[in-house]
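note to self: the first set is below, dont mix up w the second
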Amino acid sequence: MTRLRKLEPVGFRGIRLPSALDFTRTCKSMVIFGANGHGKSSYVDALECYFHGRIRHLEKENVSKAAYRHRDYPKEEDAGVRIEFDEAACNGALLVDGEKRVSFAPETEGGALLRTEVAQELVILRHRDLSRFVDMTKGEKLADLAPLIGVQELDQARDELSSATRRLEDDLTENTRLIAERRKSAEITLGLKGFDEAAVWKAVNERFKLLDIDASVGDPATLGEQLARTKVVSDPARDQKVKRLQLAQSAVDSLASGLDLAPLVNSFGRSFEQLNKDAESLRLLSIADLLQAGLNILNSSSWEEDSCPLCRQPVQTGVLRDQVETGIHTAAEVRKRRDNMVGARDRAERAVDNAKRLAADAIDRLSPVSGDAEETKVVRDIQTLLVNLSQFLEVNLPTVQFSSQALEDWNSTSPGLLAALADKSKSLGAAAASVAPSKEETDRLSAFRTLSSVESELVRLAKLAGVRIVIERDVKSLRNVVRSFEAYERECISRILSQLSGHVSTFYQQLHGGERYSNVRLEWVDGGRGLEFSLEAYGQKVTPPRLLLSESHLSSLGLCLFLAAAREFNSRSQFIVLDDVVNSFDADHRASLARLLTEEFEDVQLLVLTHDPIWYDILRRMAPDWLQLRLGHWTYDLGVQVDSGPEETRRRIASLLDSGDTITAGNMCRSHTENRLKWLCEKLGTPVPFRMGYENERRTPEELFLALERQVSNRSHFAGRGDVIWSRFRASPFIANLASHDQPEVPVPLTVGDIRLAMNLVTELEQVFRCRDCTKWVWFADTDTSRHECQCRCGKLEFR
């Protein structure tokens, strides 16, 4: 199993500068304290992104990977996360380039395998996720735990069985549909009102009587055998001849109905002849546009009154205007008559073209009936007249000589031709009737064809029924298999849940001790495929727990499940990350949780992050061997500030000064000054005015220094009381009000010299409390912490 050795994000989320979490060579557990907004969760985000390739709570619209990099980190440099493990072969790094692309640095096979395996385990728990599992639906709980409890294979097998069952059930549904179709077809063929087997065979035997067969048929096989012995066939040649005669008769009748052309062609002829005779009107029609142009000139003011606009001869304007308007009116009437004539011609042409098509079809149908040309003579005569009519309709205006001979020929000849067509139709009908089979023959043939069709449907029905028996048997068997499998699945999962629930109940009891809730279980739900919590309260079983539990208890239930599942199922990772999981816990339950973590998970590396100073102090006392870390005030230019020890801080400030970054170095120097003053006050028990709530933790460097100076001034035996450092430090810009961290920015930026001087002053102030002979701090041999009267090892430096 693997533990964390070192976690070092840089330029990632709220971490701008390298700010490593060093778990030492022994991979110790660690507790980190920092107020909200100080960047604690950036470390958790770093771990989640490394193992999962994404940060789930950032997967929102317009966020996601855009929030992975610190906004002030140089775009040309790769941000990222470097991680070391107790197994060096698994070390790796995640990179986020300037375009927000996530990649993994070249890594060993062991590193890639570790990331894959840890991603499948429970490693990180955030406050927002405490009650997430508790509030899931039953099915979601099972799906969420399935990868952990190792039932994916069972899930896959169950899905395959269910899929096979559904396919068979679909086949059964399709078989039912086909059977219904075949029954409906047999029912319609026999003329029955519903499919009844007895009625079907009764109707079949009645059809045999029409064939002069006294049969008693009751199954498809016997029906097939009887039909094979029965010879009822039609004469194809005779049927073909009847069909040709009927088609020829239909074509002759269609032609006769399409020869009612007289009204249309006569209407055209009359209108054309009238227009053709009215030469003067046609002349006006040809100059209608010219007349309109002349009228426009007469109505305008661009010509001399009482003179012709064209020849300039004297003329009476009023008379000329009347003549022109009369001509335009007459031309309009002639145009309307011409348009009516054109419409009549179009209608006549369409009717004639249709008659010509029908005549051609009639000849095609009559030719196979008889090779005698006399059979088609009347139709050919009609074709000739129709051709003449088409030519007559093509005449155009104006024409010198108009001939209506074709129209006269049609009017005089068409009645006789229509009568001849009627006679031809009668003769064709009589010929077809003389050749067609008798009613008795038709009835026998219809009965035989009905029986043949029914026999085909009944044979298909029998086959479908046989298939249905097989499908029903398979469906029944597979359903039994599914039920047996589900029972086995429930048994396996229940056995795993029983073991898991034992841990959950134990952990819950440790958190809530003698309270009224007990026997917390995660159980398989009867009547549905899923999981649900239950617990016992006041002698009753309660499920789901939200019916009774408060938000705080639901959160602790979620925490217990996470810890139990991690304990039970994590096989590769030996570390757990808890991010602000005690927000809603009261003081008693905080102590219980600390005891649970230190006693039940002493073999697991824990990384606990909190903004709760009470729980931080509880963990410090109950787990003294854990690493303890405090985060300072977060700033945009510095990002997360880790209290990593004075020597490391001084080194980082010096490095920033060497690179010319005085702004960042100055901010770090302010934080360092405040941190070291707090450290001295804590070690010496320096009294400061009390404040309510978290404000008691927030002190300016000036407050701390003045309190420390007052305390030192009251220690008459302390050698460092009169050291010059006190006056020098008091004048430092890092202790004056103007430069304290909660005041506006300094009007004039601090110089490199200011910062180096401040760092030296802090170091000198610390050395006042260190013995020059034995190099031990003055509180080294403190024997009475209530009075803080202490001394170094050799006793030459006293503080009393």
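second set (the one i keep forgetting abt)
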Amino acid sequence: MLYPLLKTKLYLPPPRPNLVPRSHLVERLNQAFAHELTLISASAGFGKTTMLQEWISECDLTVAWISIDRGDNDVARFWTYVLAAIQTIKPETGKTVFSALQTPQPPPIRSLLIELINEISDRAESTTSQSWLLVLDDYHLITESMVHDSLIFFLDHLPPKMHLIISSRFDPPWPLARLRARRTMMEIRAEDLRFSHQEVVTFLNAIMKFGLSTEDVVALGRQTEGWIVGLQMAALSMLNQSDLSGFIRAFTGTNRFILDYLLEEVLDHQSTDVQEFLLKTSLLDQMTAPLCDSVLERSNSRIMLSRLEQANLFLVPLDDQREWYRYHHLFSELLRNQLTLIYPDEISVIHQRASQWLEDQGFVDEPVAHALAAKDYWRVARLCVKYAQSLLQQSKYSVLSKWIETLPADMVRQSAWLCVYQSWTRHWSGQREGGEECLENAERILMDSTFQDQSEKKLLGGSIATVRAHYALVNEQLPLAIDQAEKAWRLLPKTDFYTLGTAGVALGGAYWAQGDVAKAEQVFVECASTALKGGFSFRASSALCYAAVQQVTQAKLALAETTLHRALSLAQGPGDQKYPNAGYPLVKLGELACEWNDLVQARNFVEDGVKLCEILGHVDLLTEAYAAQAKVQLACGDYAGTRATLQLADQISINTKLDPWATAWLDDCRVRLWLSTGHLNHANRWIAAPGLNVVGEFSYHYDLNHITLARVLAAQIFQKSVDANLDQCLELLARLLAATNEKGWKHHKIQVLILQALVLSTTHDYDGALQTLHQALTIAEPGGYVRTFVSEGKIMKELLQKIAEQKKISDYVTFLLDSFLKEPISQRLGLIEPLSTREMEVMNLLITSLSVPEIADKMFLSPNTVRSHIKNIYGKLEVNRRMDAIEKAKELGLV
């Protein structure tokens, strides 16, 4: 859905006649070209826009102009208008970026800005064009941090010959001190804009022709403090006063009271017809004659707008054709306050009429905003249903959710479609409590005998089943998930490719959770094909990602890479710009790069992918992205980063029932982190969690998380923990091996075989260990596995050396051994070479000022024992001094 572009925002309001000349400010503004930024910051009514109009007109400057409104807090919309403004003076600029911004899910804004900055810079270098201005008027209406951040980035890399001017009622939340220090910013503030005494004289006596005495001019100038709008409103009131001196003497008080008084005076001296027009149209952020006619049910709004403009009643034209206008923001606010006092019963009606007219003209957000302001929830409900499918297909779940959640709960319960959409948007955002109740309400309405439309009945029934299948999948109700997904396929029209694909994703997920990896892969591929028939590349992209996960499970890493690149291509726009749903294939490509030990590429993939997943907002995909990022950070030895990422994931899971796979992947990273940093005690507490024990039933839905349990049991054996139980560990691994064989989960089989080999080596059964490791290598070699072996540390390296000596799979083994040589210490502290629990205790005391004897006394150990632990710590950290050990431990996130 492409939102209409309101071109009137791009027109520089023409200068009004009979302005007070302000040559000193024009001279000041001419210095703007010596700076990258000019900030004009002052309260409402200080003539910021008027000053810019005078300067630009007098100096005949090349200007791209935008009149900011509150709707520009959407970062994509903001930059769409910036580009549209630039194209008014440079038509060929940024066409690719403009197209990307107009897509349903724009790529990350920073990548688009880089492309735009480069293009403008290239054009500036290749031509002899003069300097030009980008003016953002009323920038104080921007409150969204993403918009601020993107504009700061743009300013930091501003193209040559371009200058930015910001006009705002208050300072933007920018690093102004840095800009001042760099001397890249010029500032014009309220003190610069206030009318001087001579300008007050010029305005009151030369322009308004009041003929006031010097005493009266000084008094009025002092009372208004040079505030231009205050003087203008005073002048309007004085037009009908016989005793001007008496009026000026009575004109006292703070700005707020003066403004209230002047507003009453201005309105009181207008005709009833003008008053009514002013008050009732004040609810419109922007107005045009047809909209005003519709709102007021009249036919002369064009004439009225012309009269208001001629009377200087704070009406600002927004285009050269005098079609669109707005009121001065402060004047509009005051008019609205008066409206609530004079016509309180008509406010809702005005909003309703505005909503209808804007809907008829193809606007989307504005009709809903007016309907909400009118508290016309039936209209909001109708608009939600009208736009829902389009919003869902563009993954704009948050917009639809915001609208639905503002509706009264009883009203939502009376609409089957609203119930379905509410359930689905809550599932997406993670607010899943009550989702099933929404679906039950929809079914109740569906079964009502008055529901006669059979085709809609089937469509609604299929949609309910689709959403329920996804809830069942998360809630581990696999038979129900399969039943509902298949029901959806029976009921939905064969042309509803989007919903059919969505139902198919749940079906594939259920087969995946049952361990049927081949069938799951087939279903996901079919989902992608179905979605593409309807042109829904976003849905197809996610389905292909799920198919790639199944291919990885079967150890088909090269095929998975191909599938993921196809998924990524479906989530890209013009110029390889990436939409938010490109985040998922990126993080999965990052995991593959990590396995192949290309950690730089892996980190780039996951960092870009996580950012996009955060924008997308799907809680399950975002959690999986965090799991992928944690995995890569762990491989890089970035333990502090791993902890931070896991904490982000944990924040999501506090109030959300996540996909079991995501939970299992996070736990795997968490346990590996604990073992790598010597916190076996944390891992021991984890395996005591309910439902996870060595004799428990395996769950493919939890990605065979008993492998993680086996890893902890193996660590207990390696570290000679009192909890270690060799027989129990080997029995669990044997059961896991059988489970991976049964379902063809080769990726997991490799992990199990590796753990078996490592555990057998501790019993000095090297023949058994090498035979087992040989099986793992045979399965892993076609996929080019590296990280799975290298992350296991010293004992794995020794076993591979023994394999190499036997000349078994020599090229592959040699490659793996070479990979070990490239591992820095921060990446070698894996399962076999962590600091022990006791060494971690010593390390935590080493960072204090305690001496070795004091540490020994605190730990109830002999000094020699402590020195032995310190020696081991130095060896594992590859340092020779206490301070170096402390520094390295902090670098690795150990302390």
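remember for set 2: The CA atoms of residues 713 and 729 lie 6 Å apart.
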